[in-house]
């Protein structure tokens, strides 16, 4: 005879456990909300595409072949089947609590030779690196000195008596050997 997977006798125990867990969590609602306010999830920086610097764009010259352009800029993010005469380079950087950075550059070819470049004004490598470090905020430094009013709340401590000085031991005149004698 085959027993059903969810026997009615077990349902009572399962529902009882669920009710107890729910009641326990409801009792800790105030603590749970405070704890949830202190814990924040890790947010990932999302980088998509190729970063193209101003220095790279300045290296491009009309008349360069596709391979030369690829060596300078890298593989394009988008190459359309319908527009094989242009390469699209798109760079997007999404970071928590920072405005999204998006830059686009289009390279146009005619007869497999670069004709022109159109797109956004690209930052230098130094400018881009500097924009990355703005995410880190300076933490607020706590006040490390107590005011007179704060110190007045505590009882004044009695000055501790100085312990009696222990008699000085005479310096050692002989020391044990550093190595054991060989046999």
Automatic annotation (TrEMBL):
Indicate, by first and last residue, each region the UniProt record lists as having compositional bias (Low complexity). Answer: 157-167
UniProtKB keywords: Cell outer membrane, Lipoprotein, Membrane, Palmitate, Signal
Family in the record: Belongs to the BamE family.
Region Disordered: start and end of each range? 153-183
Which processes are annotated in GO (biological process)? Gram-negative-bacterium-type cell outer membrane assembly; protein insertion into membrane
Name any one GO molecular function.
protein-macromolecule adaptor activity
Please describe what this protein does. Answer: Part of the outer membrane protein assembly complex, which is involved in assembly and insertion of beta-barrel proteins into the outer membrane.
Q: Which domain of life is it from?
A: Bacteria
Per the annotation, which location comes first and is thus the protein's main one? membrane
Q: How does it sit in the membrane?
A: Lipid-anchor
Entry-linked Pfam families: BamE
Q: What is this protein called?
A: Outer membrane protein assembly factor BamE
Known partners and oligomeric status = Part of the Bam complex.
């Amino acid at each position: 005879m085959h027993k059903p997977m969810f026997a009615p006798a077990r349902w009572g125990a399962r529902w009882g456990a669920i009710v107890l867990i729910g009641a326990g969590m409801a009792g800790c609602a105030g603590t749970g909300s405070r704890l949830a306010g202190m814990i924040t999830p890790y947010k990932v920086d999302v980088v998509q595409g190729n970063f193209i610097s101003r220095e790279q764009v300045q290296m491009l010259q009309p008349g360069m072949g596709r391979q030369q352009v690829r060596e300078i800029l890298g593989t394009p993010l988008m190459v359309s089947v319908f527009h094989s005469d242009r390469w699209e380079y798109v760079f997007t950087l999404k970071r928590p609590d920072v405005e999204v950075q998006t830059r686009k550059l289009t390279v146009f070819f005619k007869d497999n030779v670069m004709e022109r470049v159109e797109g956004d004004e690209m930052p230098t490598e130094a400018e881009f690196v500097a924009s990355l470090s703005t995410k880190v905020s300076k933490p607020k430094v706590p006040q490390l000195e107590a005011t007179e009013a704060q110190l007045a709340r505590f009882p004044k401590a009695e000055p501790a008596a100085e312990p009696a000085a222990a008699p000085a031991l005479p310096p050692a005149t002989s020391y044990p050997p550093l190595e054991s004698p060989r046999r």
